[in-house]
Amino acid sequence: MAVRVHLDEMLHRRRMTLTDLSDRVDITLANLSVLKTGKAKAIRFSTLEAICHALDCQPGDLLTFDSGEQP
Amino acid sequence: MMRQGKLVHIAKIVVQLGRGLNGVFAAIFVFGLVFSVLKAPAIDAQLTLKYGPRLDVETARHFFQGVLLLGLPAVYATERLFASLRAILATVGMGDTFSAANAARIRLIGWMLLTLQLVDVALGVAAGIARSLRLDFITWTPSFTGWLAVLVAFVLAQVFSAGTRMRDELEGVI
Fold this sequence. Notes:
The complex is a heterodimer of chains A (71) and B (174).
Chain A: E1 3-5, H1 7-13, H2 18-25, H3 29-36, H4 45-55, H5 59-62, E2 63-65
Antiparallel strand pairs in A: 1-2
Chain B: H1 2-38, H2 40-51, H3 57-94, H4 100-133, H5 144-171
Helix pairs in contact in B: 1-3, 2-3, 3-4, 4-5
Organism (chain A): Sphingomonas chungangi
Domain HTH cro/C1-type (chain A): 7-62
Pfam families (chain A): HTH_26
């Protein structure tokens, strides 16, 4: 997918695990794992807001668009 | 939730009873047809006894055989309808009703209801023939609710198809 998710890097920088994030944002570990591996089809604004709040970052830190990749 | 579970349970029993009753009707139609072929002279004699010698007994017998034949597509459609309904009820129990399979089942129910309506129209034609032959037959009136049920089934099938597509779309949303 042309939109890349950088959740793994963000978690690594903040020395957090996916389980920690799951506890903080109240989203299941399974769903966060789907997001982390780039298998999600879409992300709700509410989810993005909760993750940005928990990781103290901007949506642009989590998602980037790679124009070279085919959709 | 409890009430819904009870309703599904009752519906399952009704479907099961309906299938059993339909099986009995199927047996009656088949037996009637076989009997009318094997015991044609006895039937002709009974018809003459009831309607008098002016009746064309052979035509009358063929008429009643035709009516019995009409029962066969009706019992087939009813069986397919009940089988689909039972499968849908099973998915309700599992909490997974919005699926492509259920949409197809409801569409099939629509086709089977349409078949039953066409049989009903054929019965109406048969009632007219019976009148012209001066035979005792059912009083037929067109079933408008039946045609409405056909329409509802096809619309519901479309609703289920759209619901399934929407659910599939939402599946990957985090």
